[in-house]
Amino acid sequence: MHKKISLLFVIFLAGQNTFGQCAMCRAVVEQGGEQVTEGINSGIVYLMAFPYLLVTVAFYLFYRNWKRSRLQ
């Protein structure tokens, strides 16, 4: 249990120094206009949506199978 808490603490501290964009993406956004910024933001949302969708579907399938096995 102590190892798990220590690991979570290290992960939490490591996440504090991260940035949202790589240097090249940041340079493109700073040089580009509003259209480039909207495109980058749309791409980020697009890439972020699929993992959440996969986790939601997996949870739903797990719950449905668990509920069926409980009724039998």
Write the SSE topology:
Blueprint: H1 2-15, H2 23-31, H3 34-71
Give an overview of the whole structure.
This protein is mainly alpha-helical. Helices cover 85% and strands 0% of the residues. The chain has three helices and no strands. The longest helix has 38 residues, at 34-71. The mean pLDDT is 82.
Give a short synopsis of this structure.
The chain contains three helices and no strands. The chain has 72 residues and is mostly helical. It has one domain (19-71).
Give the N-to-C terminal Cα separation.
Answer: 35 Å
Average predicted local confidence, pLDDT: 82
Specify the structural class: mainly alpha
The percentage of residues in β strands lies in under 5%
What's the helix count? 3
Instruction: Count the domains.
Output: 1
Properties at a glance:
72 residues; mainly alpha
